[in-house]
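Mods, move this if it's the wrong board.
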Amino acid sequence: MTVLEYQRLASEIRARLRRPPNPVKDSGIDLKRLKRGWRFAEKKPPPPIPEVQDYPRPPPKNITLNLILAVAAAQSGLTVKDLIKPDRRRQQTLVRHIAIFLASIHTKMTYGEIGIRLHRDHTTCLYAKEKIAVLAHTDEAVAQKISKIESVLFSKQLFG
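Not the wrong board. Structure tokens:
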């Protein structure tokens, strides 16, 4: 056999071994694998992040992250160390996220500065603010926790 015959034979074998085209992947239809089988994936856009409402009065200028952490911890029965340590328990995470949300609204700190103080990355702080902004409008318990913490922050007992 010559070299050309070997090349022709190799190309025929490759053509037989080639996988047939996948009609599902090639059609552009996106399928999701579920426990009970396949279904068409409905590509929904993520829910819009609601804008934070302006407060009728400007917040006091002497609200700091330490004050927000102390009030949030006291309202939830935790300590400030519980909020700073790298714990992922749901209650501590929720209170920490609420504190990050309030700190991003009521202080002029950046996400990086808040993250450094809480031993977190700035993207974690960004995620926490977006998450609590959505939960504040959808979950009544979270909205009540936020309003309790803010009422203590804005109370006359703290700022005379």
